[in-house]
Amino acid sequence: MATSRRNARTERGAAAPQGAGTRARPAKLPPVRLAPREELAAAARVAPLLRAARLVACWAAAGQRAGTADGLTASAASAAIAELELTAAELDVAWRVAAGTGMVAVPTGQAVPGPRVDVLASGEAGDVLAVWEDALRVMLRAEDLDGMATALYTVGGPVKMDALFEAYMAAAGSREGTERPSRQGEDLAAGLSSALETLADLGVVELGTASERIDAARRGTPGLRGAGFAVLDRIGDQAVPTVQAALEDPVLRAHAAVWLHEHGEEAELGPGERAWLLVDLGAGLLEEADPRDVVVELLPDLPPKAQADMVAGLWEVDHPAVTDLLTALSEHHPDPAVARAARKAAFKARSPSPGVRGRRS
């Protein structure tokens, strides 16, 4: 879940039906009761993204690092990542905020202190909030965050992961036009996780607990399961006990085992569970991606014979989406042997033994 913490009233224009005597009028979002200005400024001063932006700005200006308003040069960026212990993505976002809020300037291709470099440390409350507002504007302009932030603010309370995932997919779809989104399910899940982290780092939203996210993954679609575990990366090691408990859940076990393994924890995953995870991931991709893209991305990079052998056994997987996935593979896989194996497996999956399939969702 995520909860809105937007700190100002916002208006967004909404076009009214056009006709004789009608005019477009802005649709107002509900007003909120603001905390005292000093309290808001205190929260903004410690917002992780603003602090990272100031850190990068001071570091770059002190060394007169080379770059532009869009980013540091490759060598300067490598040095920043190493010395400031940031990831490339964290550095990119921090630099955008630093440049967009006036913490740093690069008038001649070398970084110098910007006029607002010390606002967070010693500025008046109004100046601090102005920097926070500019940082939010920078991020809303650069990411798929505007619709999500507005939706959270409009609801004014906790929003479940499935609703957030739908809002994010809608934003991705509107950006890419009327065609179905070409981005794969894992990309959407990772994008949602990154978007929520950005909003949380600016203090716009509060992310729910690891129990809440596990519960959303348990009750959601295959695509939402991937998104739920991607967002758990935000919590990191603190989520380990909760994810370990999820190993007892048949629906979540495979996802939880992979997540734990990626975070340095021991978790066994047998062949049958690996096959189930493959089907679940494929089902998640099919929720939004073109089947032709799914069949290209889904199967491991193995010789066609090995892929055909793998697909031939998928009919035994206890998953409600296995027939749909096998059908997609049979219709769109470019290798005839793999497509033939998928077609035979789909036929078997349509006539299972009573009670074999459908216990997981």
Any descriptors?
disordered N terminus, mainly alpha, two-stranded antiparallel sheet, 3 domains, 361 residues
What does this protein structure show overall?
- Helices cover 57% and strands 6% of the residues.
- It folds into three domains: 39-140; 154-243, no CATH class; 283-349, no CATH class.
- The longest helix is centred in the middle third of the chain and has 18 residues, at 125-142.
- The protein is elongated and about 70 Å long.
- It has 361 residues and is mainly alpha-helical.
- A hairpin with a 2-residue loop joins β4 and β5.
- The chain has helices spanning 37-45, 48-62, 74-84, 88-100, 119-122, 125-142, 146-155, 161-175, 185-201, 210-219, 222-231, 240-246, 253-262, 271-286, 291-298, 304-312, 322-332, 336-349, and strands spanning 2-4, 11-14, 25-28, 67-68, 71-72, 104-105, 112-113, 205-207.
- The strands form four sheets. The protein has a two-stranded antiparallel ribbon with strand order 1-8. The chain has a two-stranded antiparallel ribbon with strand order 2-3.
- The two termini are 21 Å apart.
- The protein contains 18 helices and eight strands.
